Amino acid sequence: MDKLFDVDLTLKLLGLPFVLTALLAAAILGLLAGVLGPLIVSRNMAFSVHGTSELALTGGAAALLLGWDVGQGALAGAIVAALVLGLLSRRSSDYDSVIGVVLAFGLGLGVLMLWLYKGRASNKFGLLTGQIVGQDFAGIALLSGCAVVVLVLLALLYRPLLFASVDPEVARARGVPTTALALVFAVMVGAATALGVRTVGSLLVLALMVTPAAAACRVTASPLKATVLAVVFAEVSAVGGIVLSLAPGAPVSAFVTAISFLIYLVCWVVSRSRGRVRA
Question: Does the keyword Transmembrane apply (predicted)?
Answer without folding.
Answer: yes
